[in-house]
């Protein structure tokens, strides 16, 4: 169980592919103009991560070491093609909105990195769980960044939810404030860079505070032990 806790902590926080490893920044910065765009790409990336991790784990003892990277890329490309066809069939408008960044999931270093660094060295269940947590961590960052940009830029949240969830989500759009002049800096790519920098800064600040608290607690425990022994 401790192994799964470590994988969860790494994927969501300590080794988050977007905030710590800084992988997959091109689609992350390009498509996160809205929450739904970020969520759609995040779920697609997570599905590819899980499928590729499981497959690589299953064939890890069969594939020769010299050709493992091309094989891993072919596996990832196969799952990306499946996801692309499914999105084309069931979420066509979202598929058009995400455009070229769906097939470009193949080039996401976070996926090939997890296949090489973890899935190729571990059994199926840990590999699948690692794919879930890494994909979830990446998706959370996409959604947070998309939410920040959509809220600041247009004053709404969940705009276009029907593109992902269907007609049932036609009325899910939340209008926080109405504006006739959208804040273009938030919507355009420079806003994505600024928002990403703010998220990384917030994570670093939280990590520093947690580290300072742990150091303080260790000092208090040491003082208590010294006092008890004396």
From TrEMBL:
<keyword id="KW-1003">Cell membrane</keyword>
<feature type="transmembrane region" description="Helical">
    <location>
        <begin position="69"/>
        <end position="88"/>
    </location>
</feature>
<dbReference type="Pfam" id="PF02508">
    <property type="entry name" value="Rnf-Nqr"/>
</dbReference>
<keyword id="KW-0997">Cell inner membrane</keyword>
<dbReference type="InterPro" id="IPR003667">
    <property type="entry name" value="NqrDE/RnfAE"/>
</dbReference>
<keyword id="KW-1133">Transmembrane helix</keyword>
<feature type="transmembrane region" description="Helical">
    <location>
        <begin position="183"/>
        <end position="206"/>
    </location>
</feature>
<comment type="subunit">
    <text>The complex is composed of six subunits: RnfA, RnfB, RnfC, RnfD, RnfE and RnfG.</text>
</comment>
<dbReference type="InterPro" id="IPR010968">
    <property type="entry name" value="RnfE"/>
</dbReference>
<feature type="transmembrane region" description="Helical">
    <location>
        <begin position="43"/>
        <end position="62"/>
    </location>
</feature>
<keyword id="KW-0813">Transport</keyword>
<keyword id="KW-1278">Translocase</keyword>
<protein>
    <recommendedName>
        <fullName>Ion-translocating oxidoreductase complex subunit E</fullName>
        <ecNumber>7.-.-.-</ecNumber>
    </recommendedName>
</protein>
<keyword id="KW-0249">Electron transport</keyword>
<comment type="function">
    <text>Part of a membrane-bound complex that couples electron transfer with translocation of ions across the membrane.</text>
</comment>
<feature type="transmembrane region" description="Helical">
    <location>
        <begin position="124"/>
        <end position="148"/>
    </location>
</feature>
<keyword id="KW-0812">Transmembrane</keyword>
<comment type="similarity">
    <text>Belongs to the NqrDE/RnfAE family.</text>
</comment>
<keyword id="KW-0472">Membrane</keyword>
<feature type="transmembrane region" description="Helical">
    <location>
        <begin position="94"/>
        <end position="112"/>
    </location>
</feature>
